[in-house]
Amino acid sequence: MCGIVGYCGPKKASEVLLEGLKRLEYRGYDSAGICVSHKGSFETVKRKGKIKDLREIVPSNMVGNTGIGHTRWATHGEVTDENAHPHYDDSEKIVLVHNGIIENYQVIKKRLIAEGHTFLSDTDSEVISHLVATLYKGNLEVALRETVFLLKGTYGLAVMHKDNPDKIVGVRNGSPLVLGIGENEMFLASDVTAILAHTKQVIYLEDKEIVVITADSYKTFDFHEQELQKKIENIGWDLDQIEKDGYEFFMEKEINEQPESILRAIIGRTDVDGATGHLGGLNMTPAELLNIKRIQIVAAGTSYYAGMVGAYLLESIARIPASTELSSEVRYKNPVVQPDTLYFVVSQSGETADTLYAMRELQRKGGRVLGICNVVGSTIPRESDGGVYIHSGPEIAVASTKAFTSQITVFYILTLILARMRHLSYEAGLRLVSGLESVPEKIKEILADSGELKKIAVKYSKYENFLFLGRGLNYSVALEGALKLKEISYIHAEGYSSAEIKHGPIALINENTPSLFLVPDDDLRDKVINNIKEVKARKGKVIAVAVKGDDEIESIVDDVIWIPKAHSLMYPYLMVVPLQLFAFYMALELDRDVDQPRNLAKSVTVE
Ligand code: F6R
After folding, report:
1. Does the pLDDT at position 199 exceed 90?
2. Is 168 within 8 Å of 188 (Cβ atoms)?
3. In contact, 385 and 370? CB cutoff 8 Å
4. Residue 133 exposed, middle or buried by CB count within 10 Å (0-12, 13-18, 19+)
5. Domains and CATH numbers, the chain
6. How far is ligand 1, taken at its centre, from the CA of residue 282, in Å?
7. Is the peptide bond before 321 cis (omega within 30 degrees of 0)?
8. Were both Cys, which of 118, 469, 474, 589 would link to 461 (CB 3.0–4.6 Å)?
């Protein structure tokens, strides 16, 4: 999604902006631009393409110490140089970058055109600079405040005016914006990764807040001109966590980080003495936890699939009716919110618009909503009624991997807590704790032994359609495996419950559509084997992810990806890692842009 960087300080602004934009690349974008102010004039360079393309046309003599930059992920208007940000008003005195969507831009644009304004782009964003110009009477923050009252939609904005060329005004409503405080330098960014190389001291803006920065000062206001005293927070991440650390791709690094990231999600949260768990962030007393009658999990994409694993565990082990819903569907269906239902929103970024808006709707109706998020200080954890951080560390590759395994870890611990309060025996609780604690080592085994898996991925990379099939707890893993493959290799893949294919998808089976079956050694194994035989009977090629020691499987399928034996509830971890690797190797073989696949954005901040 779009990214913003702003800089006021002693350094060459163009360099700070380009470096910040480079760090935002992971969010997904299709064009970029910067504007730097120098001695009362603005110089702007923008183009479609990557930051390296932009860098090629930024003149080396682009001096100036204040500036704004942007990566654009097209929503309104095609991917062209003209539609890239920054955008000016007619007089070219006002320049801005915008994240979000202005829903009423067409009405505003029509009126402004009638008044004689000329537009140079097809974007919704350009109307804002023109509107600010019409309202400007010598004070940019006042003009911007009056402007935002006329806008319907979401925005994170960074704006400059030639009258005060060393000042940037930012405003946030629905699109994240953070202020970075350095030594005699200030930063604005849509994401802390853009400024982490310069400062760890930040202030997160809330919706309907304005910030004014110069090199040595900042002020924050609400929309009623009240100055705010906001808390300075310390970013817990280090620069090396957002770098590749010897790997060629972030995705590869993040897949390999999973033994440690899962451990970070477990540490301090299991209780061997009580054979239970502990999640302080829930902010709920044992009595309140005992009163929960239903759990509803709301999320999008990979986080939704993690939620499905969570709902399955909560219902089958903790015996609490639990379901998962797509966040994009929750807001507009007028959901029924009940007092004894506990709601969880799951989001790696903590900024996904669909999930954020669903959370707000549930809260408006009186629902208690807890967040399960990765990015500390992001909007969902700040606005939720409590919650749990997954502590994965920064996830930079667009395709989510380590966040998924850490999200499900939180659900395992939650299940343990709630199940032990209800029906789960001490011994069974203890087995669950030790099963969970053994997962990181088993994942290490899979990672250390991925050579054969790579060969299988290469062998199958010529196929254009795949089915991913699993049952029970591993049904959602099949969906996640199919999503990973289509996201980064652009190969068509569908995930189904393996029992479901006979109700339709089996019509797709022929020698050109391989099926990838998840075959754990649990209660459903024999049923999955029957489903495999149905596919083989129709000449379908089958790859199985199966447990070492399953002697029968090799004779039934075409290829096997082996995983270690584990506690039967732990297979989602051990199944998903090979699927992540399968997608990764396949994408490599097909020469895809693994970390920034086409059309995708990391943090989807528009509806
Ligand atoms: C898939 C992927 C997306 C995200 C989805 C939700 O690899 O990354 O499907 O899972 O956009 O994002 P978060 O978890 O940030 O709310």
Report:
1. yes
2. yes
3. yes
4. buried
5. 3-241 (3.60.20.10), 244-444 (3.40.50.10490), 449-593 (3.40.50.10490)
6. 23
7. no
8. 589
